[in-house]
Design brief:
With about 220 residues, the chain is mainly α. It is about 75% helix and about 0% strand.
Amino acid sequence: MNELLLIVLAYLIGSIPTAVWVSKYFFGIDIREYGSGNSGATNTYRVFGFKWGTMVMIIDMLKGIAAVKLAYLLPNYVDNETQLINLQIGLGLAAVIGHIFPIWAEFRGGKGVATLFGLVLGISPWTALSCVGIFLLVLYLTRFVSLSSILASIAFPVFILVIFNEREHLYRIFAIAVALMVLLTHQKNIGRLFRGSESKVPILKYRDRRRQRKKVLNNHRED
């Protein structure tokens, strides 16, 4: 019974619609009516820019961390690592489901990548930080949040199964499932990436402007 109550609480935490509340309180609109129609960090970057997108991403990550930490409210799980990880995964997934289908926002939420990351950060910080490295590198090179999320999620099972060689079977299965789920929820983004119509986040603008000016100067000199 205690486990069930914690799972419900984790779902309610995950249901906090950060992007929707930010868009309505600070901008007077519903972000789901703009951009991709999604209420996650990626669309917040697209519609409101880097500052607001980053804030939404951090809060959504904290939802996953908070859900995972609920497991420590049950002392009998703390001394059993296998049971603790299993419960944490269950609580984290409840938060992710809440993010995707939030009860506070008509069950129309985001894709859950930031909350998933918070889940992993709460259970295995080094694995999470490794995935962050992949995410930031791809974001720096491409400025596509969606592509960064996809490649970081694919790297997740690689880190779990190969590099860190986690022995807990459920965690290994979970890592593979995460990668598959992110690919599934990003089908539209993948399609836009292939068509060349995916939006980039407005970061590194000065770098891009310098490159553009340099390109124009080089073309001028060739002429």
